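Hey, resending since the last one bounced:
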Amino acid sequence: MPHALVTLLTSPRRGVLSTPTTPAGSADSDSEDIYAVARAIGVLAPDWVRTGCLYAAQPADAYAVLVMPCLPDATKRHNTYHRLCISSAPSSGLYAAYRAHTLSWQDFALRYLAELEAKREGALAQFVEQLCAVPARYRGVLLLGFRQAPGGNETVVRCARRLLRAWLLDQVESLPEVQRQRARVRAC
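The structure tokens again:
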């Protein structure tokens, strides 16, 4: 279903918002519309989109989405999540290369951000549309991954969930991984 054909989106904080419909066949404007709508109703906002570890305690008022290319190890104790989203996760090949230590964290982060940009029109636009439809009883979305945050500090955890959150909130430029890359390019 094209994104712009959704005529009503419910915001848990701002009531009901009508979205403009666009002509059929304009996929680019459809996906841009869903990002604009999500920002306008507060779904793509720092206090709405949070991150956490699957194996840590989670707030009960958050809609938990596991964003990984594979399921958690069934032998480990883990919290429940409401939804698994493989389409917004790193590709399985990229994730496997990082886990096998053939890619540094820096390289993994930059490649995953490139994958996210490539998914902007399709999988990520659908993901944002689904975030807009999170039931109003939740006070936010919690993007989950497997890694524990060092000292509970989610801003430094080396996990795809932090990168996805920054991408969704249009904060990629503030990521240390991106700033390091820009500094390397300037130094050359």
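Residues 1-27 have pLDDT under 50 and may be disordered.

Sorry for the duplicate.
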